[in-house]
Amino acid sequence: MSVKLNHPVPDFSAPATSDATVTLSELRGKQVVIYFYPKASTPGCTTEGGDFRDRKPRFDAANTVIIGVSRDGIRAQENFKAKQDFNFELISDKDETVCQIFDVIKLKKMYGKEHLGIERSTFLIDSEGKLAQEWRGVKVPGHADEVLTAAEALHAN
């Protein structure tokens, strides 16, 4: 099962930082950016999270919630959030439930070895819970700005 553009995103609940549980259906009425990253506290993931953190006031103005997701445990997510001063929640998706909904687990190669991991991906969900836009195989530089532009345009409509 994978999400499709202009279709409702299946509801999910997942453990997140700040002793929270993120339930997608509870965010109706707001736009939601869900970005998937391979591993907490690694250079690319730190840069990407920082880019979203630094643009959060503009996402807020566009009625858009930011949520980061990786397969790291909740303690690793809490440490990552605290160390980087992230102003949004991070989901711990150890069982890959949320990853499977968005079909972001892919075969990757590192140092000549293949393994299954998260393909850096971002999804913009409209205020009615439908997938408005998706970015797969994301390159970090400029990405948060591209997502912000899309969120602002969607909010303006």
Automatic annotation (TrEMBL):
It comes from the Bacteria. InterPro entries: AhpC/TSA, Peroxiredoxin_AhpC-typ, Peroxiredoxin_BCP/PrxQ, Thioredoxin-like_sf, Thioredoxin_domain. Residues 3-156 form the Thioredoxin domain. Keywords: Antioxidant, Disulfide bond, Oxidoreductase, Peroxidase, Redox-active center. It is an enzyme of class 1 (oxidoreductase). Pfam families: AhpC-TSA (PF00578). CDD domains: PRX_BCP (cd03017). Monomer. Thiol-specific peroxidase that catalyzes the reduction of hydrogen peroxide and organic hydroperoxides to water and alcohols, respectively. Plays a role in cell protection against oxidative stress by detoxifying peroxides and as sensor of hydrogen peroxide-mediated signaling events. PANTHER family: AHPC_TSA FAMILY PROTEIN, THIOREDOXIN-DEPENDENT PEROXIDE REDUCTASE. Belongs to the peroxiredoxin family. BCP/PrxQ subfamily. This is thioredoxin-dependent peroxiredoxin. It comes from Vreelandella alkaliphila.
